[in-house]
Structures are given as structure tokens and as C-alpha cells.
């Protein structure tokens, strides 16, 4: 007896990259009455017009979502778990903001009980925003990272994360040694890497706070852990870039501080890269290392205007990150809109972004950056059903806008201009619904 479900919806996805030259207008796929059959293990087994799919699956129970808009689950490639409570501290550049806001708060996560509370708030923030997959910058404390993985597992979220390591330039309680960095990473990974949807990410905070021996320890963890990811920051702020150049006189540039240790490849994601050199872009493209573009953070900290055109021209993969807590919230709709604004503000050197680019950046590009293109990112047959349904409350600007949109392209533009957490009604990960009508629920034990 089949227990498949048949989702009936107005749906968008981006199975083809709208940044490629061969892309055709409007750059997304839209179906105003899509049928998606999802097996009881959460995999999409058939898709097509509802009128064709429904008769072929008479046993599947129909879930009618046509009152809303169905999108693939959003993918955030850079967000800091310990910084939920420091969102919104405005007016400072990166290094001052780290010293005055982020790093004092991060020290509180030494307490497991405090870390559990923060993990709870953090995971709730992701789900409320419709983020089903994320590359999460962890904590400097192994017990806090453990709490994060445990909380994400309660909801079945796809989280890649790890212990943040540093051995200089930060408050003493946040520092470690290369030996401890290696041992604690391996211990955490033995518990979480490959458990459910969790994966381990080797995470030096940034080269400014990580000496060569710590970066070498990171490389050793990467060598010891099959399928681990690597993540850090790069070229975010001019003062940071200058400091790193002084700390690493033998390296050609900031990217080289990581590349020297063999840390850059297709399993690496570096955040920001607002101030790259041409040579760095070439190396990133050659290594297939992705950049997490974090536009609200770059704007809030005044880090600069992201050279997206140069990244695309060089062939560097780019996805989106909200970069909470320097970023101003969890919503990838806001990040998409801010990415669009920044490219507008760059004038002739900016890359004009259409709604399709914003959807791609916040779904399939993130899936690709995280090596998950075979599993998530769009609604292709064979992929897991990770999805969100937007149902704006009646009378809101988004509700009105969607009812009066003249085309699917216009409607998607309104989503990125206007959607926020209050519009994310339902959330599924791997076919399991974890939010319904905006209410979040943990999985039953055993799922
Ligand atoms: N560089 C090193 N640490 C951080 C951080 O927490 N946030 C941002 N935006 N940049 C960083
Ligand atoms: Zn960051």
C-alpha cells in the first residue's frame, strides 16, 4: 500500500543556473498547478502538471498548497550559531564589532546550559526563516557545538558545522592549541559527521586569529575526515586584509593563507570575499571553492560592495549567507534583496539581478556550494523534498502584491522584496513537515 503524498502547488525552482550565458528568460521554472509525488522516505518520485500526475497516482493523498507559493527549502551558506543575541548592533566596522559585540557574547557559550538555550533560539530562527540547509559557523567550545548538532537533529535540519578554532588575537578563553583543535574536532566529528543529516566543517575563525600551526591542524582534520567541509572568512574588510598580509609575509594573498595548507577545494566555502585580487579569484575558480556572499552583513559593517560580476566572470561559485549576527536577520529573502540592491548601487560595474538569480542564489547555488546538488536545491525527481510554502497573512503587502502580480516573474520579485518570516507557513525537510502554519514541531523520536 503506497503511502506517497501528492503535493499540488504553485511552485518555483531553478534547475538551470540563470547566471550562465546559455540561460533563457525568465531563468526559473514555474508551474502554476504542479503535482509532486513524494515517497514516504521523503524523495520526489514524480513531477508534472497535476492533471497528468494525479491520475497516475490514484493512491497518493493530495496536499493542496495552491493558496501559497512553494519554493525549495532555502540554503544558507554562512551563519554564526553563537551570535543570535547580538543581531542588530549597528555602526561599527568588522574588527570593532568583533571586539565589542560578537566575541564577548561568544565566551558565554562556555556554559553548556547557555549554549543549549542559544542552540534552541538559533535553530528556531533558521526554521522560521525557511532555511532547511545551512553551513553554520560553530562555537569555540566543543560542548556548545555538540548542543547545536543535537538541536538541529531534533528537527532533522541539514546542518554542516564544526568547532571554531583560533590561537591568537582573540580573548584568551576563545583560544586553543593545534593539538587540542585537532583532538576536539575529531571527537566531535566522531559523534556527528554523517549522523543523520549532520556533517562536520573544519572551521578556523579567520587567518587573522589562526596561525600556521592551527591551519596545519585544520588540514590534518580534513585529511582524517572523509567528506568533511572547510569554512572560514576571507577578504571581508580592508583593515583585516592588511593585518593578515602583515601576519603572513610569505603568502601571496589572503586566499593563499588557506591554499598553502591545501584547504581550498570544492568542499570549501569562504565567507565575504568583498576585496579579492584577480589572482585570488583565479585560484578560487580553479579550486572550485565557493564564496558565501553576505550582503546585509557587508552593508551593516560597511565592509564594502561585493564584486559579483568579477566572481561570475572568473567562474567562482557564489551562494548566499545571512551571516547572523553581523547580518541583520535569518531571512534569505532579505539577503537576496540586499544582494540585488548592492549590484544596483554598483552601477555599471554591478551585475543586474533578476528574481531568478535571487532564487538560484538562495536555493540551488547553496546546494551546489555545499556539495548537495544531487540531494536538494530544486524539485527534480530523485531529490529529497525540502520545501517551504509561503502564505502571506491576508491584507499584507505581499498578499496583495501576489494577488495582483502580472506574471510569475513579477510575483517572484515581490517575494524577494516583501517576504519575511511571517510569510513562511510550512517547512519540510526530507519530506517531513517541521513547521505547519508557522508552528514548529520537533520530530518524533526515531525519525
Ligand atoms: N571574521 C571573523 N569572525 C567573524 C564574524 O564573527 N563575523 C564576521 N562577519 N566576520 C568575521
Ligand atoms: Zn561570518
Automatic annotation (TrEMBL):
Cofactor(s) needed: Zn(2+)
Alphabetically list the UniProt keywords: Hydrolase, Metal-binding, Zinc
Q: Does the keyword Zinc apply?
A: yes
Q: Which InterPro entries match?
A: Amidohydro-rel (IPR006680), Metal-dep_hydrolase_composite (IPR011059), Metal_Hydrolase (IPR032466), Metallo-dep_hydrolases (IPR051607)
Q: Does the keyword Membrane apply?
A: no
GO BP annotations listed: guanine metabolic process
Looking up Gene3D superfamilies in the UniProt record yields: Metal-dependent hydrolases, Urease, subunit C, domain 1
GO CC, sorted alphabetically, is:
cytosol
Q: Which GO terms describe its molecular function?
A: guanine deaminase activity; zinc ion binding
Please state every residue range assigned to the domain named Amidohydrolase-related.
Answer: 69-432
Q: Which PANTHER family match?
A: GUANINE DEAMINASE
Q: Supply the NCBIfam families for this chain.
A: PRK09228.1
The name under which this protein is listed is: Guanine deaminase
What is the source species? Nocardioides currus
Amino acid at each position: 500500500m503506497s503511502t506517497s503524498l501528492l503535493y499540488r502547488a504553485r511552485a518555483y525552482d531553478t534547475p538551470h543556473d540563470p547566471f550562465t550565458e546559455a540561460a533563457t528568460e525568465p531563468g526559473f521554472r514555474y508551474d502554476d498547478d504542479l503535482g509532486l509525488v513524494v515517497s514516504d522516505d521523503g524523495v520526489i518520485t514524480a513531477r508534472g502538471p497535476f492533471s497528468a500526475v494525479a491520475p497516475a497516482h490514484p493512491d497518493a493523498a493530495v496536499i493542496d498548497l495552491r493558496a501559497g507559493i512553494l519554493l525549495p527549502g532555502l540554503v544558507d551558506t554562512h551563519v554564526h550559531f553563537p551570535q543570535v543575541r547580538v543581531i542588530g548592533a549597528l555602526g561599527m566596522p568588522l574588527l570593532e564589532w568583533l571586539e565589542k559585540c560578537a566575541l564577548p557574547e561568544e565566551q558565554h557559550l562556555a556554559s553548556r546550559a547557555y549554549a543549549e538555550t542559544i542552540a534552541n533560539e538559533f535553530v528556531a530562527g533558521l526554521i522560521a526563516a525557511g532555511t532547511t540547509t545551512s553551513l553554520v559557523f560553530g562555537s569555540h567550545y566543543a560542548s556548545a557545538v555538540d548542543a547545536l548538532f543535537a538541536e538541529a537533529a531534533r528537527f532533522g535540519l541539514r546542518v554542516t558545522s564544526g568547532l571554531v578554532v583560533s590561537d591568537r588575537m582573540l580573548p584568551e578563553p576563545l583560544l586553543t592549541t593545534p593539538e587540542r583543535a585537532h583532538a576536539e574536532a575529531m571527537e566531535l566529528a566522531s559523534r556527528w559527521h554523517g549522523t543523520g543529516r549532520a556533517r562536520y566543517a573544519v572551521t578556523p575563525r579567520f587567518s587573522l586569529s589562526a596561525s600556521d600551526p592551527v591551519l596545519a591542524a585544520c588540514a590534518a582534520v580534513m585529511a582524517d575526515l572523509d567528506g568533511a567541509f572547510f569554512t572560514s572568512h576571507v577578504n571581508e574588510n580592508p583593515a583585516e586584509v592588511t593585518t593578515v598580509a602583515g601576519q603572513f609575509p610569505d603568502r601571496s594573498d589572503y586566499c593563499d593563507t588557506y591554499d598553502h595548507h591545501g584547504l581550498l577545494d570544492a568542499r570549501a566555502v569562504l565567507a565575504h570575499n568583498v576585496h579579492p585580487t584577480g589572482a585570488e579569484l583565479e585560484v578560487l575558480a580553479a579550486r572550485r571553492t565557493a564564496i558565501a556572499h553576505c550582503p546585509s552583513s557587508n552593508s551593516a559593517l560597511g565592509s564594502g560592495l561585493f564584486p559579483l560580476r568579477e566572481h561570475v566572470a572568473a567562474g567562482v561559485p557564489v551562494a548566499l549567507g545571512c551571516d547572523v549576527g553581523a547580518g541583520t536577520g535569518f531571512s534569505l529573502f532579505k539577503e537576496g534583496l540586499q544582494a540585488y540592491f548592492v549590484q544596483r548601487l554598483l552601477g555599471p560595474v554591478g551585475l543586474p539581478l533578476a528574481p531568478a538569480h535571487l532564487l538560484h542564489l538562495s536555493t540551488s547555488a547553496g546546494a551546489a556550494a555545499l556539495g548537495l546538488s544531487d540531494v536538494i536545491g530544486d524539485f527534480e525527481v530523485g531529490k529529497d523534498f525540502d520545501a517551504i510554502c509561503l502564505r502571506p497573512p491576508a491584507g499584507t503587502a505581499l498578499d496583495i502584491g501576489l494577488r495582483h502580480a502580472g506574471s510569475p516573474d513579477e510575483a517572484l520579485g515581490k517575494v524577494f522584496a516583501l517576504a519575511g518570516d511571517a510569510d513562511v507557513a510550512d517547512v519540510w525537510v526530507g519530506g517531513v513537515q517541521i513547521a505547519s502554519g508557522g508552528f514548529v514541531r520537533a520530530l518524533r523520536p526515531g525519525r
